[in-house]
Amino acid sequence: MVSFEPTEEQLMVQKTAREFAARELAPKAAERDHEGTFPRDELRKLAELGLLGVNVPDAYGGAEMGVVAYSLAVTELARACASTTVAVCVSNMAAELICTYGSEAQKQRYARAIVDGSACCGAFALSETHCGSDAAALRTTARRDGDSWVLDGSKQWITSGDHAGVLVVWARTDNQGDRGARGIAAFIVEGGSEGLHVGKHEDKLGLRGSTTVPLTFESCRIPGDAMLGNDGDGFRLAMTALDGGRIGIASQALGIGLAALDAARDYARERSAFGRPIADKQAIQWMIADSATELEAARLLTLRAAMLKQAGVPYTREASMAKLYASEAANRVCYRALQIHGGYGYTRDFPIERMSRDVRVTTIYEGTSEIQRLVIGRSLTSA
Ligand SMILES: Cc1cc2nc3c(=O)[nH]c(=O)nc-3n(C[C@H](O)[C@H](O)[C@H](O)COP(=O)(O)OP(=O)(O)OC[C@H]3O[C@@H](n4cnc5c(N)ncnc54)[C@H](O)[C@@H]3O)c2cc1C
If we measure between CA atoms, which residue out of 77, 86, 67 comes closest to residue 157? Predict the structure, then answer.
């Protein structure tokens, strides 16, 4: 029998995340959204619980609980507050990336700082104004100058870019771009470095408690040993990180979808029309049935991708399938859940309004749905 049942340890991480989410995230999720407050204190507490480095080795301060536990934890957090969850996802992704490709000194210093919360959180700076999907077209440059690297250029859409103490930044070392994807390297940059400027917060539709900022590098001088991995390997590092990141976003979408389904079910039981609770109407039951079924499929796809990654076998296609399906399913679920709320769903008085805005970006960031289809299609058709 194929088992998708989590182990005792994984259930423990899930429970920890669920209890934290109910106690610390849910009560202020609406306020975080309305006021645009960044969850700095919450991130510190999440670090104390090991949730900023769930799949990071113990040697670098991580919880070392694996990818399945990570996915379960993200889903629980996202049920309560999608804004906080995106900062958690990016932190885990940056810390894992540093642990996979970094030198011992980089792991000890930077992965540890993300995981223990002393860096507040991590950031992943790949996209630029002119390129998101086509990341290999990036233009930020890194040039060697004596004992240092000097970064020039700009980044766009950087989650937590204004709060992160540790940023992984991609730049071209070939200057002219003549080596294409092979001319890119990844660098670790400390938040607050001289020459690193943070721009204005994006005024977003959703995830309003998360910050998304442009960054400018103006002769930003970083140490000569700041490169992560080898020169020319940056694009490969980014793609590897995004494979894992997609499991995180699938888990986030699943969490938002589950919360929307709960809200729709509760509302349908309470609200009456034509003398009966609307939950008794077949049209409403079908919406709830479709939503529950699609979320179950999303859960299984996400768990499978997580299990493959954890087993150390290739999982690129499965991560893209999970991200594609879970994000699109969660959007449908939120749409139906809002419909079930009638006019009240369109107001800020009910959390479904926030969820419907938050879920929208899950088909866009960490690779749009179109890019996921491209990854899946290529993997199925290439010889
Ligand atoms: C809230 C938020 C947070 C983000 N956080 C980060 C972050 O922390 N770090 C980071 O580096 N980036 C981040 N991003 C950027 C995000 O990853 C990009 O927005 C995304 O990859 C899409 O890139 P783009 O916006 O440039 O769209 P484009 O790449 O310009 O795409 C525009 C449209 O064309 C489609 N398209 C593009 N290429 C193809 C193709 N080959 N075939 C078919 N269709 C195609 C796309 O699917 C999309 O529909 C974030 C974005 C948002 C909105």
Answer: 86
